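Supplementary Methods S3. Complex input for the zinc ion-bound model.
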Amino acid sequence: MPDTSIRSLPLSRCSINTATLGHRSPIGEVIERVARHGFGGISPWRRDLEGQDHRLVGRHIRYAGLSLSGYCRGTYFPGANRAAFEANVADNRRAIDEAAALGAPCFVFVVGSLPEGTKDLADARSQVSEGLSTLLPYAREAGVGLAVEPLHPMYAGDRSCITSLGEALTLCESLDPSRQGGIGVAIDVYHVWWDWRLSVDIAAAGRSGRIMAFHVCDWLVPTQDLLLDRGMTGEGVIDVGRIRREIEGTGYDGFAEVEVFSRRWWSTSEDDVLAACAKGFASI
Ligand code: ZN
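Predicted complex, serialized as C-alpha cells:
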C-alpha cells in the first residue's frame, strides 16, 4: 500500500520551470509573477537569459524570495563529427558557467541522440558519456550538479538516447563510481511514469544520492502532440502523488518543479497557468 500519510506540501516547495509559461515575457517579469503567486522556486531556461547578466538575474531571483531549482538545459552532446561534438561540449561548459553565476544548484541535461543522417545509437551514447565525463570535474569545481534527465523512449530518435531512470543511473555510476557526487538525475514524471522498474530505480537513485531535480506535469490520453501536449499535474493518468511519495521517501526534500510544454496552456494567461500549477501541486 502506498503511504498516504504524508501531508500536502506548502507552495514554497513548488518551483516553476519557465517553459511552463511559454517563454512569453521577459525574465524579470516572470520572476516577479512567480514570486507573487507564492511559489518557492524557479528554473529558468538559457533562452530566457540571452544577453542578460546571469549574476544579476540570480540576485533578482533571490531578492524576489525565490530559490533556483535548476537551470535548463544542455546542448545535445552527439555530433556528426568530432568537431561538432567538441563544440557541443564547449557550449555546455559555457552553460555551466552561467548556472554558477546564477547560483543554480544543477544544470539539467537533455543529452541528445542520433545526429541527423546517422543510425548509430551506441555511438550517440558513447558521445554522451564522454561529454559528461569531460565536464564533470569542471562542474564540480563550479559547484553545479550535472543532472541527467532521461526522456521517454518516444524521443530516442532525436532528443535523448538515455530513455529510462535505470539507464541514467547506470551512466552516473560509470562516471562517478566512488560516488563523489556532482552528477545525478532529474526525474520527470512525464518521461518515467510508464516504467515497471520505476519504484526500484527511484529507491536506488535515493540511496546513491543522485536525485537532483523532480519535474511534475501529467500524461494526457490521448496525447495529441509528442512535444507540446503535456497535461497540468492532475489532468492526466500519472499517479504523480505516488511518485512524489516514493521520491520523498528516499529523503529528497527539494522542489517539485512544474514543467508543462503545452500549446493549450500557453494560449491562456500566465496568471491562469500559475494558478493551475498551484492547484495541480496541491493535488499531489
Ligand atoms: Zn523535465
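The pocket of zinc ion is lined by residues 149, 186, 188, 215, 259 (CB under 6 Å). The chain is about 40% helix and 10% strand.
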